[in-house]
Amino acid sequence: MIPSFKYFAISGHGNPNSQEFSEKVSALYKVAYAVRMMPKSGFTPNGYFEYTVYPLEGVWDGDIADKDSFSYKIMIRQPDFVDHEVFREALAIAKQKKPTPFLSEIVFEEMEDGLSVQMLHIGAYDDEPKSFAKISQFMNDNNYQRTTKTHREIYLSDPNKSTPDKQRTVLRVFVKKS
């Protein structure tokens, strides 16, 4: 059971290899790092503590064979001390430093995955269907069924710093007991 967490998120449609997707990821990280560095900007939120910025996550829907058909919501989890005031301040800091396309599309929200089945996929993103097949087999063997065709991915590796065969991604599907 995956509880509710706070996120900065942005939605989109299309190929994750596109320039637009890359710019949306960049905008998310600008706002997430603005929170992380707030004390150096002269604003320390209530309950602030030093932390490592969480990894990028995405909720995906679409045909794996046609990446242009994808709909997605990409996000970065936030610590519990982040609230709407901290979010507005982080956006202001990010806009001040270097305006980036898509900053105005970022939202602050809570999401709960609930009952889920997940596994660590090691390898290229294009090889994920093999891991999803293992997830499906586990679900069949244990009387679970998916509640939606969407799935969550949590990117534990930086694709700019690791080779595709070494990339680590958590794959999560949302389920109910049959």
Keywords:
178 residues, alpha+beta, Multidrug-efflux Transporter 1 Regulator Bmrr, Chain A, 26% helix, 35% strand
In terms of topology, how is this protein built?
Layout: E1 2-13, H1 19-36, E2 56-61, E3 71-78, H2 84-97, E4 107-114, E5 116-122, H3 128-141, E6 144-155, E7 168-177
Antiparallel strand pairs: 1-3, 1-4, 2-3, 2-6, 5-7, 6-7
Helix pairs in contact: 1-2
In short:
Helices cover 26% and strands 35% of the residues.
Report on this structure:
- The mean pLDDT is 95.
- The protein contains three helices and seven strands.
- A seven-stranded antiparallel β-sheet has the order 4-1-3-2-6-7-5, with helices on one face.
- The protein is an alpha+beta fold and 178 residues long.
- It folds into two domains: 114 residues, Alpha-Beta Barrel (Multidrug-efflux Transporter 1 Regulator Bmrr, Chain A), CATH 3.20.80; 64 residues, Multidrug-efflux Transporter 1 Regulator Bmrr, Chain A, CATH 3.20.80.10.
- The relative contact order is 0.21.
